[in-house]
Amino acid sequence: MKIFIYFFCLLFLSLVFIACAIPTSIDVDSQIPPTFHCRGDGSLLNFVVQEVDTKSYKQTTLWKIEPETDISLWDYPSITYGVLPKHFKQVFPSQGFPPILESGKLYIAGGLGLHSDGVSVWFKVEEGKIIKVPPPL
Question: Which residues does the chain have with pLDDT short of 50?
Answer without folding.
Answer: 4-20
